[in-house]
Specification:
By secondary structure, the protein is of the alpha+beta class. It has 2 domains: 135 residues, Probable inorganic polyphosphate/atp-NAD kinase, domain 1 (Rossmann fold, 3-Layer(aba) Sandwich), CATH 3.40.50.10330; 164 residues, Tumour Suppressor Smad4 (Sandwich). Helices cover 27% and strands 34% of the residues. Strand 8 and strand 9 form a beta hairpin. Helix 1 runs parallel beside helix 5.
Length: 311
């Protein structure tokens, strides 16, 4: 197989040793008889274009070497709406959360993860899609509007690559404790009942994995999202009360008793501002803009490598 490894040298603050890790991964994959090439990104957001070029050039798989942000960028160049023969996505986990890698059951040791995928299977999976201001963006882990969007925006403007994970948590807690988040409107259709719903929320999160990891890992409830569906988490106003209650109930396993949070299985939903400044939104930890947005599912849009044990 022809395999392309895309490395963002600035990912994770440019931590030392990344080049050596990817070199070991490339050597291990080549040892299986594969043709392997390592490509480094040169500008922010260029990983998607590099992945698209690799797929068009005949690559069988493109490995994103980094965290969830790098995976998010690479997959932009590999998604094929309506299905197709694009190159498969592989993941060499080198981030702090690695939420998608954990969800897929990958080893968190980079070389082992790459070998397991190269010797494993390839499946077509659904991905989320965010549409906004005439643009669109795909996501694999989650997309959200409200506090998480504001957090990602502030970390980007403060050069988030320099933040360690603990500092990230401190910044998040400071933001949630001091910011007064405004409510916005959310419209969706429940897949279980077919009912159209409209309500206001201070936070809306569409989740595609069983856990977001870290201190936020328990905020989305205990149910794994259905295939082809989004797990929608809505936190109702007032934010000053609902956000801390949401956090505490999630960690105590009492989310089913929290009347300020609603969980729903949906295939699409839309968010729009109500008044004042429009809330921020993000996808897979990347800030994208401000509301309004429409979020939906695209079936069988991404081919992804999985370990053999996923069968």
């Amino acid at each position: 197989m022809r395999l392309i490894l895309i490395l963002n040298p600035a990912s994770g603050g440019g931590r030392s040793g990344r080049y050596e890790i990817v070199a070991r991964v490339a050597e291990a994959l080549a040892g299986l008889g594969n043709e392997v090439e390592v490509i480094q990104t040169e500008t922010a957001g260029s990983a998607g274009a590099l992945a698209r070029r690799a797929a068009e050039g005949g690559a069988d798989a493109v490995f994103a070497c980094g965290g969830d942000g790098t995976v998010h960028e690479v997959m932009q160049g590999l998604v094929a709406e309506g299905g197709g023969g694009s190159a498969a996505l592989g993941i060499v986990p080198m981030g702090s959360a690695n939420a998608l890698a954990r969800h897929l059951g990958l080893s968190l040791e980079p070389v082992q993860a790459a070998l397991d995928q190269a010797l494993g299977i390839c499946e077509s999976v659904s991905v989320g899609k965010v549409e906004f201001a005439g643009e669109s963006r795909y996501f694999a882990v989650m997309a959200g509007a409200g506090p998480d969007g504001a957090l990602v925006y502030e970390l980007e403007t403060a050069h988030k690559a320099g933040w360690g994970r603990f500092a990230y948590y401190v910044h998040a807690l400071r933001l949630f404790a001091t910011r007064r988040f405004k409510a916005f409107s959310v419209e969706y259709r429940e897949t279980a009942t077919g009912r159209r719903m409209a309500e206001q929320a201070v936070c809306a999160m569409a989740v595609r994995v069983s856990s977001l990891g870290g201190i936020f890992g328990r905020l989305t409830g205990r149910v794994t999202p259905e295939a082809g569906r989004l797990r929608l988490v809505l936190v109702r106003p007032p934010a000053l009360i609902s956000l801390p209650v949401w956090f505490v109930c999630g960690w105590l396993g009492l989310e089913r008793f929290n009347v300020l949070v609603r969980f729903a299985s949906v295939s699409e939903f839309a968010c729009a501002p109500v008044a004042g400044d429009s809330p921020h939104f993000e996808a897979d930890g990347e800030w994208l803009g401000r509301l309004p947005i429409r979020v939906s599912m695209v079936p069988d849009a991404l081919r992804i490598l999985l370990p053999q044990r996923k069968l």
